[in-house]
Amino acid sequence: MRDGDATGSIAAPARPGPTDTDLAFARTAASDVLTKGNKDTSQPWENPSTGARGSVTPLAQAYTAEGRTCRDFLASYVNGKSESWLQGAACRARGGQWEIHSLKPWRS
After folding, report:
1. Element (H or E) spanning 61, and its range?
2. Does residue 15 lie in a domain region?
3. How far is residue 56's CA from residue 14's CA, in Å, rounded to a whole number?
4. Residue closest to 73 by CA, chosen among 92, 87, 91
5. Is this prediction's pTM over 0.90?
6. Could you tell me if residue 57 is inside a domain?
7. How far apart are CA 14 and CA 7, in angstroms?
């Protein structure tokens, strides 16, 4: 080794996750599939600017929370070789639209 040479480990790159715009596409897909109301239906989504894509699938039946109808869902996230899952929950707003109130990495 010569003077000036450095050794050390290289940190692994951070695992890329969904961008805010990726999440916006996933939220729109979640609202669409929940509006359809079928438990066994998935709604695909794709963000053409990042290449990220996935699908959203409702889980179980609707339930009531704070006087509103709510549903839980899972969303897949694929971008290049990165794959992960997001879990979310949405409740129906007064106007009938689904309002996503949580969307975060899935913990099994």
Report:
1. strand 53-65
2. no
3. 25
4. 87
5. no
6. yes
7. 21
